[in-house]
Amino acid sequence: MASTIVSDRGQITIPEEIRDYLKLNAGSKIEFVIDEQGEVKIIPLKFSVEDLSGILHYPGIEKATIEDMENAVQEAAIDWS
Asked: Among 22, 32, 61, 81, which residue is least crowded by beta carbons within 10 Å?
């Protein structure tokens, strides 16, 4: 599905089918992410971290749990201080 409307300010029109699928409404926030293959992903910013875990999956790497992420942040904070 393509969207051909790009304004002078770089704004795009997201087709209704995609908005419905992503459950986007007026004022919804989205994130644009470029993955390692150079593909652009649109991620609605209304999901929890658990929902986003593994979205940029790399083969051979297991999904991190929330506990794993919290531990990694704590360890990094200790190493940094």
From this structure: 81
